[in-house]
Structures are given as C-alpha cells and as structure tokens.
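Fold this sequence, please.
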Amino acid sequence: MFGSTVLEVAIGMTFCYGFVGLLVSTLQEAIAAALHLRARTLLKGIRTMLNDPDFSGLARNLYAHALVNPRDDGSATDPHELRHKPSYIDPKHFAIALIDTLQTIPGNFEQLGRDIDLVQDPQVRGALRSMYLRAHGSLPVFQDNAARWFDNTMERVSGAYKRKSLAISLFISLAIAVAFNIDSVHLFQTLWTQPTLTAQLKAMPPTAIDGATLASLRTLPVGWQALPVWDTSMLVRLSGWLLTAASSLFGAPFWFDLFQRLIHMRGTGDKPGSKP
C-alpha cells in the first residue's frame, strides 16, 4: 500500500500544488502591498459604516484624528489626498476618535447626547443614539459600545476583503497554470505511468521558492514543449488548468503538510509481523 503507485502519484501532485500555492500567495501579498488593498478596503468600510461616501463628514474627521491616522497631517479633503492610509485601526482608538470628533465639550456626557442629535445622517444618528442610551450615563460604556460597533463592521469588511483576495488568487493561479502549463490531468496521467518521477521529491517540503524547489519541480511533467493545438484536446487541458488553479487556493501550508504526511506514510513500510 505505502509503496504503491497511488501514493507516488499523490506525492507528486501535492508537491506541485504546494509549489503553485506558495507562488500564488507570494504574488498575492505583493500585489496587495503594491495596491494598498487592505488600507483601501478599510477606508471604504469606514465610509460605508458612517454613510460618508463623499468623505466630507465623520469619515474625513476620523481620518484626520491622530489615533486613527497618525502618519497624515489631517488636512485631506478627499480620499486621494490622503498620503498615508492605515491598514489597521484599533477598535478602542476608533471609539476614542469618534467621541473626540462628535463632542464639543470633552468629558461632558450630556453634551455628547446633544452633539449626537446634530449628526446629519439619520442612520448613523440612530445608531449613535442607541449606543448613547444603552450607556446609562457612562462615557466608558459608550466608548465600549462604539468599539464593538466597529468590530462588528470590520468583520463584514474582512469578509469582503477575503472574497476580493480569493478572486485575485484564483486569477493568479490560473495565469500560473497556463503560463507554465501545469495541467493536472496530464500531470496525473504522466505520474501514473511513470511514478519514478517522484524519486527526487522525498525530502521535506521547502518553505520558500529556492533553487532546490525549482530543481525538484523540473522533474515533474510541467512546462511548454510546443505550441498548443486548438482542438478537442484543449478542453481537457483547460480542465486541467482550472483544476490546478482551484487546488492551489487551499494554500501552500495545506499541501505541504499533506506532502509531509504522504512522505511519512511512504517511509513507514509494511507493519512487521508478530513473532511466534
């Protein structure tokens, strides 16, 4: 069982998927950092939360606060004028900045209620008024309520960011599968008929894209040998690319952990028989 062709094929497939997943995650993080996706998603979430799409009310005042955006000078009147956008905001800091933005008399809880009544947007005013009434005259309790409000909103923002990241990862993985011709169907067929190709993949899986990883990948049947011919076989090849792209979305840690388990299973051998 442990030395069967099935296990050899599984080792080769998991190594290939792990390498693609590692490459996809690296490129995805590079793109997210270059495009400031986290910071832009956070800004969009706060503008939606405070119903300030024009960035002319509470959202702009919050991003001018030092606790929310300490690296900016607070003079921006448009999202494009923000020279620095935070990628993360502490909920407590958000609550303090919100209170500082709303109140006209620091520390006066009754005046804070009157300041909330002056908020123009009815939905935001209603949410703040509800938190204010539940505070029962305690400013720290109102601050905690505002922090929990921010936490709940950021959970939805995180879900939107994950969906966006998943779409980017799928596009990158499909591009890698096509560029390097990593066809899961062809890979499976080749490894099934030639299981000795996994002989060089017995070492522990790599944690980075290095020369050893690339050398091991060259033993697998990937890459372009000739220009593709657009016939009925392209449907099979396309399905192989899509399978590779979808499999890489599980992430490199998942596949390399599975790779380690398969290598361990391969090295255990048969269970020794009991002595008479």
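The two ends are 25 Å apart (CA to CA). Residues 5-34+167-268 form one domain.
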